[in-house]
Structures are given as structure tokens and as C-alpha cells.
Amino acid sequence: xxxxxxxxxxxxxxxxxxxxxxxxxxxxxxxxxxxxxxxxxxxxxxxxxxxxxxxxxxxxxxxxxxxxxxxxxxxxxxxxxxxxxxxxxxxxxxxxxxxxxxxxxxxxxxxxxxxxxxxxxxxxxxxxxxxxxxxxxxxxxxxxxxxxxxxxxxxxxxxxxxxxxxxxxxxxxxxxxxxxxxxxxxxxxxxxxxxxxxxxxxxxxxxxxxxxxxxxxxxxxxxxxxxxxxxxxxxxxxxxxxxxxxxxxxxxxxxxxxxxxxxxxxxxxxxxxxxxxxxxxxxxxxxxxxxxxxxxxxxxxxxxxxxxxxxxxxxxxxxxxxxxxxxxxxxxxxxxxxxxxxxxxxxxxxxxxxxxxxxxxxxxxxxxxxxx
Length: 372
Ligand code: NAD
Ligand code: UD1
Known about the structure:
Blueprint: H1 2-17, H2 24-35, E1 38-42, H3 47-58, E2 62-67, H4 75-84, E3 89-92, H5 98-108, E4 112-115, H6 122-127, H7 129-149, E5 154-160, H8 183-201, E6 206-212, E7 214-216, H9 235-243, E8 250-253, E9 265-266, E10 268-270, H10 271-285, E11 292-296, E12 302-303, H11 304-315, E13 321-324, E14 333-334, H12 339-345, H13 353-366
Parallel strand pairs: 1-2, 1-4, 2-3, 4-5, 5-6, 6-11, 7-10, 8-13, 9-14
Antiparallel strand pairs: 9-12
Bound molecules: nicotinamide-adenine-dinucleotide and uridine-diphosphate-N-acetylglucosamine.
């Protein structure tokens, strides 16, 4: 339905372009209005979800957030609305609640789903593997069944570079060997496999799987960002809490990796760039084949010490650190070959490390205790 209207409008544009008296901007607005989608965003009050909702609203889409608030607060919704100057419908609920999902699909007739909802801590997944399977895999299956029953077959799914396990070489391309080294990684691989099976049994599905590398930073307003529970596990939130005085010093996990300075190398990607990758994936999903899998990273790796230095520059302070042994399960180097996303989605990261550090620092300074 939407595709047909788009074609008509584009033809109309051709006509207008040949007529210099007509207002092209008005026509663009008309085109945008017709390509606007109604989108269910699961996990939309979380870190990546909230930034993506802002970008979706900016792009003119209509959004409903479904989140059980297991790792976020409802306060983020107000902040999204303030940034976007648009209202968002928020439903507190679980993707495992079949009846609720069915009700939502019937009420809203969604065109697409962007599926962020999931648990994401590697350590927690090792301690509670069944909970991770139930929430991330069974929950996703419940969502996909409900989509199918309600004839909604357009999906963007949040996967992770964790599905590459210990990579044989870097940069990592989408065709690299897949393996999981913990129950969290297992759950991402399992959902990717479910999606492949779904698509082969019903080719009408349009599915884009985005494998994120290391999301960092925050919206330029400093109003939304990452708000980890307790002591952060990930590098950037940890450094930021040292900078703001909540933690004493950073422990650098390992300086004996086969990397130039001995510390681990990762591909840090600005969360706003990451959010925009979802808009690109959604707009190409109409034309592309599916499921399509894309690495979402900058293609550039930085070591822990390089990140510390970049953060010190952005925050104009020293980050005290101590060298400690390697963290179990960590790998030496992980960065993306992101050329497929550029070629097929027209997406590439716009922000470099310095901007990531500045934006992360602004969020931390303005919100030393997160959303509280
Ligand atoms: P997040 O925890 O900030 O957001 C996830 C949201 O999902 C939270 O608001 C949580 O309350 C909600 N949620 C969890 N289980 C739910 C359920 N059963 N029903 C409804 N809502 C539920 O995490 P994030 O960093 O924004 O990550 C979003 C997605 O991206 C996750 O699937 C995660 O695995 C994936 N991912 C994240 C990273 C990362 O480093 N942040 C990297 C790769 C992939
Ligand atoms: C971790 C997860 C991975 C997940 C990713 C993004 C593990 C084993 N892996 O990966 O599954 O997809 O986050 O959320 O948890 N570091 C320190 N000190 C710290 C924290 C980190 O030196 O206090 C180092 C790490 O050793 C690593 C780098 O910083 O070299 C990045 O660490 P982190 O932010 O935790 O991300 P990943 O290890 O890539």
C-alpha cells in the first residue's frame, strides 16, 4: 500500500520539477507524509531505543514504545518528547505477553517493528542463562508470532558483534564465522536463526538484522544517554563515572594483548549514528531482500588507552587508572568491516571518537546520577 502511494507521489514530483512555478518543498512534505510509518519500538525507553525513537520522530514516523522497564525508567519518555517536540505513546508491558501484543497490533496496525527489548549483560547471562533464554529468545518468538498473525512482516532486529565470538581476523565482515561464548551471545545467535527460518518459510517477511559493535555517547542535548544499573561493566560508562568522581579509578583489563599498546581494541560507534542506521535499514527494507545482516560500526578500532586519552581531552581532566589482568572472555581486537551498510543502506558513521567522548561527557555531567 505504502509503496504504491510513494510511486504516485514520486511521479507527481517529476511533473512538478518540470513546472518552475510549483513549490517543491510542499511536494517533499507530501512525500514524507505518505512514507511515514507506524512503528512499534520494543525496548524503546532503553539506551539505544530512546535515541532511535528520537530519530524516528524526527523523520516523521509515528511511534509506540513497548517496554517492561526492567532496565529503564518511564522518565525517559518525557525527555524524548521534549527533544522531539512530539508526543509518543508508551506502553509498559512485556514482549512475552501475547495478549497485550495482540491487542496492540490490532489497535495500531503497525507497519514495522524495531525490536530492541532484551537483557544485555554478559555476566548476568552466565549467572542466569535460563532467564536470558526466556526473555530474549522466547520473548522474541512471541513477538514474531504475533506480528505474523497480525500481518505485520517488517522488522529490524538488534543483534551484536558478540555473535562473532573470537574473530579469526579483523576487520570483521558479515560473512565471518559465528560463535557464541556466553548465554547472551547464544540468545542473539538463536534469534538470528529464528529469523532466517521465519523468512525461508514465508518470503513476505522483510527483515534487517543489525549487528552493533560498541555503542557509546549520547544525544547532543545531553538529555538522554546510557544509565547503567550499579557499577558499569562497559568501558565508557566506567570512565565517565571516574571523571565525575563517582568511582576512584579505572581498571584497565590487560596490557598484554597483541595490539600496539597491549590493551584491547574495539569499534566504538556513536549511539546517534547507530540510531540513524535503523532509519536507513527501515527505508531500504522496502526494496531489499531479507533477512539482510549488517555490521554497524565505524570500521575504526581504538585501544582502551586511546579511549582514555580521548576522554581526558574532552573532559579536560585526568582519568586515574591501574593495569589489571585480562577480563575473562575478552578478546584482543574487534572492529567492523562496515562497507556493506554503506553500499546497501547508504549508512556510515558520521561521528568520530572525539565527538563521542564530548557527547558522553555532556550526558554524564548533566546527569551524574542518570535519570534519577
Ligand atoms: P537497554 O537495557 O538500555 O534497553 C533494552 C530495553 O528493553 C530496556 O528498556 C528494558 O527495560 C527493555 N526490556 C528488556 N526485556 C524486555 C521485555 N521482555 N519486554 C519488554 N521490554 C524489555 O539496552 P540497549 O543498550 O539499549 O540495547 C538494546 C538492544 O541492543 C538489546 O537487544 C541489546 O542486546 C542490543 N545490543 C546492545 C549493545 C550495547 O552495548 N548496548 C550492543 C549490541 C547489541
Ligand atoms: C562487552 C560484552 C559484549 C557486548 C559489548 C557491548 C563482555 C565480555 N563482553 O564487550 O558481549 O556486546 O560489551 O555492550 O562483557 N575495559 C577495561 N576496563 C573496564 C571495562 C572495559 O579495561 O572497566 C576494556 C575491555 O577489556 C575491552 C574494552 O575496554 O577491551 C571494551 O570493553 P566493554 O565496553 O566492556 O565492551 P566489550 O568488551 O567489547
